[in-house]
Specification:
Layout lengths: L1 E5 L2 H14 L2 E4 L4 H10 L3 E5 L2 H8 L12 E4 L5 E6 L6 H12 L2 E2 L8 E11 L5 H15 L6 E7 L6 H10 L3 E4 L1 H5 L10 H7 L4 H14 L4 E8 L3 E12 L2 H5 L1
InterPro entries: CbiG_hydrolase, CbiG_N, CobE/GbiG_C, CobE/GbiG_C_sf, GbiG_N_sf
Protein name: Cobalamin biosynthesis protein CbiG
GO biological process, one term: cobalamin biosynthetic process
Length: 260
């Protein structure tokens, strides 16, 4: 469950607006404050506080465990200008969540963990039945981007397994979207097996890897940066196609990018 916790009228007004977009529970001036908030946290609820950061840290400090178990926590100022992922940035997904919330509010995300100063490179992996039409592939890709909170401009490439090197729909899609189309062989894609969200024995028997879309997305992301990739969006599928999105980080941005 997502809970938005506010302490002032201004915070409540912002919380009402955000709650409607996130299907969240708005909690205004919970009493007793520490007991209620700590209970939400220990229950694993995803928390958004619209108040001062110090209040949140002093309240949650007694119940913090570690970044692998604690739920994500965001802090937003009353004007809705800044969104801070305070706890469980990477492992708990607070960084990505902060990006999503900041887009909803047209706010500035303030990412302070190490990878917040790195440039994410996003790669799309796709698989499909032979002859899958471009319209179905494009709709699936756009649905995936929407779910991941990404734009087409952020995608570096579209990729698949090498037996799809001549797949007309994928080639047409990449050309239409002005993205490179890359394919990889099963030995290359097999390197990504430990990072897959699911493994399909059927796909393995058919093409030699446990998942085309996720493997291709992950492998491409790694090739772009040389760094360890991660899935941003686990594979989604239609009756004829699959799509997944992965990313890796390319390196430190220049100072102007960090300041902006």
């Amino acid at each position: 469950m997502i809970r938005i916790i506010t302490l002032t009228e201004a915070g409540k007004n912002l919380g009402v607006r955000l709650a409607s977009k996130l299907d969240a529970d708005l909690v205004y001036k919970p009493q007793p404050f520490a007991e209620q908030v700590q209970g939400f946290f220990k229950n694993g609820d995803r928390l958004i506080f619209i108040c001062a950061t110090g209040i949140v840290m002093r309240t949650l400090a007694p119940v913090l465990q570690d970044k692998y178990q604690d739920p994500p926590v965001l802090v937003i100022d009353e004007q809705g200008k800044f969104v801070i992922p305070l706890l469980s940035g990477h492992e708990g997904g607070a960084n990505n969540w902060a990006l999503e919330v900041s887009r909803l509010l047209d706010a500035q995300p303030v990412i302070t963990t190490a990878n917040g100063y790195l440039n994410p490179i996003y790669s799309v992996g796709m698989g499909c039945e032979r002859g899958c039409p471009i319209d179905e592939l494009e709709k699936l890709l756009m649905d995936c981007l929407q779910q991941a909170g990404l734009t087409l401009d952020q995608v570096s490439s579209i990729s698949s397994i090498d037996i799809k090197a001549d797949e007309v729909g994928l080639i047409q899609l990449a050309k239409k979207l002005n993205k490179p189309y890359q394919t990889w062989d099963r030995h290359q894609l097999a390197e990504m097996e430990p990072l897959l969200s699911t493994r399909s024995d059927y796909v393995f028997k058919t093409v030699g890897v446990y998942g085309v879309a996720e493997s291709a997305a992950l492998y491409s992301a790694k090739q772009h940066t040389g760094q360890q990739p991660e899935l941003v969006l686990n594979k989604l599928k239609t009756t004829k196609a699959t799509c997944a999105i992965a990313r890796s980080y390319s390196g430190v941005r220049d100072a102007s990018s960090i300041e902006n």
